[in-house]
Amino acid sequence: MIILEFEKIIFELDAKIKELKNLDTKDLKMIEEIKRIESKQKKLLKKIYSELSPWEKVLVARHQERPKTSDYVSILVDDFVPLAGDRTFGNDLAITAGIGRFKGVSVAVLGHEKGKDTEERIKHNFGMPHPEGYRKACRLMDLADKFNLPLITFIDTAGAYPGVGAEERGQAEAIAKCIERALKFKGPIIATIIGEGGSGGAVALAVANTILMLEHSIYSVISPEGCASILYRAPEKAMDAANALKLTAQDLLKFKMIDGIINEPLGGAHRDPDFIIKAVGEKIKASLLSLSNAGNLKDHRSNKFLDLCRNYGEQ
After folding, report:
1. 9 forms bridges with which residues in the sheet?
2. Torsions phi, psi of 182, nearest 5?
3. Is 252 exposed, middle or buried (0-12, 13-18, 19+ CB in 10 A)?
4. Torsion-angle region of residue 308: left (phi > 0), alpha (psi -120 to 50) or beta?
5. Cα separation of 187 and 166, whole Å?
6. What pTM does this model have?
7. What's the confidence (pLDDT) of residue 24?
8. Engineered SS bond to 228: which of 14, 166, 241, 288, CB 3.0-4.6 Å?
């Protein structure tokens, strides 16, 4: 497992436990010592993760072993059929799109895909979509509306790809069209931020009736590094930027930018993927059920974002 700087002491204790277990574990004193260290490790892990700074939450949200969209889809969505291409340019593998069955209900699914190892990350462009990715998302929304399917989205991106080719093919327009299409979507949309939610590249898939965030995920208008480069002219001030951006789930719930937080297992989602995937599935199920009585879902979604604009425009 990849070790974050603030977790080093946890792994040192873990190594000590493994070392003792390799010795004579029938010795009562040894057994008591192992239990003592395990208890200390658990208390320390709980303390560390209950006091994470915004920058430390950024590091946890970016942890390479956190479950990806493909992990959620493989467990939560049965008979998933992927949709490929935008019928204009190509197929963007940074965006996963398709239809399947969630808890017995036919649904459409969209999500950013970062990949799990170096080869996959390159293949999926590190989860940073090109314009064709957002146009593929619009295609899926058209299909979902045609067959009255709910839409479930998973957000995990540092932002849309900022390369020259992407800009030449209309990156900003593609994101704007994707947001517009989501606002016009007839059925319910449930969005879950599972890792990073960066810039308009994240918002394009997060225009939803219900927006959920994992406990240690982040959601912001720009990355801390990008903010530090622009505002402070000093990329090394990313930690200061993370504090200023108010990008944690706890901050965003307080500001009513999101609708709920899904608690992660002790030590983060990467320590128990099965637990967090099940928890996300239950929360999505509950959200879909609650929206069944929400009336006109298109108006519900539009008013939700218009209210945010009005409230913060007045401040």
Report:
1. none
2. -65, -40
3. buried
4. alpha
5. 30
6. 0.92
7. 63
8. 241
**Among 166-170, 182-186, 229-233, which is the least confidently predicted range?**
229-233
Q: Round to whole Å and give the CA distance between 264 and 114.
A: 20
Give the per-residue pLDDT at 307: 86
CA distance 162 to 223: 13
* The CA-based dihedral angle spanning residues 279, 280, 283, 289, taken in that order and rounded to the nearest 10 degrees: -130
Residue 89 in contact with residue 132, Cβ under 8 Å?
yes
Flag whether pLDDT at 2 surpasses 80.
Answer: no
Asked if residue 227 lies in contact with residue 249, where contact means CB atoms within 8 angstroms, the answer is no
Return the number of other C-beta atoms located less than 10 Å from residue 2's C-beta.
8
Question: Longest C-alpha distance within the chain, in Å?
Answer: 69
Nearest to residue 63, comparing CAs of 187, 192, 156? 156
**What's the average model confidence in pLDDT over 196-217?**
96
Dist CA 190 CA 212 (whole Å): 8
Q: What is residue 315's predicted lDDT score, i.e. its pLDDT?
A: 53
* CATH number, span 58-313: 3.90.226.10
Which of 179, 177, 197, 199 has its CA nearest to residue 189? 179
Q: How far apart are the first and last CA of the chain?
A: 44
Q: Are 55 and 224 in contact (CB under 8 A)?
A: yes
